[in-house]
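Pilot study result, target chain (138 residues):
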Amino acid sequence: MTQALRILLVIDAAVLFLLGLVLIVAPQRVAMVSHFQNFPEGINYLVGLWGCALLTMAAGYLAAAQDPFRHAVWVQVGIARGALECLLSVVYLARGIVVWPQAGTGVVLAALMAVGYAVLYPRAMPLAEDAVPPAAAP
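Predicted structure:
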C-alpha cells in the first residue's frame, strides 16, 4: 500500500508541476482551453500566482513520496485539497457560475485524489526488517 501511495504522490506532483508551469508561462491559453474568455490582463497575474503555489506544492508532494510516513501531513493536505476543490467546483456548478465543460474534469479529478489519498493514508509506521521487538514486561 505504501508503494501505491508513493505512486499517487508522484503522479499528483507531476500534474501540479506541469499545470503550475503552464499557468505561469501561458495563462491565457489555459483560460482558452478551459472555455473562459475575455479576462482582463490583470487576471494573468493571479493565475500566475496560482501556478507558483502549484509548483511549490508539487515539490512538497515529491518530498512526501520519498517517505510518506514521515511526511504524512502532505497526504492530509492532499485529502483536504481534493475535498475542497471538489466542493468548490460543485458549488460553482450549482450556482451556474461555471458549466460542466469548465469544471467537470476538476470535479472528477479532485474527488479521485481525495479518495485515493484517504484510502492510502499511512496509518501505522511499518516495522524495520531488523527491528528487535520490545521485551515483554514481567
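One observation from the pilot: The chain has one domain: 2-120. A full batch analysis is planned for the follow-on phase.
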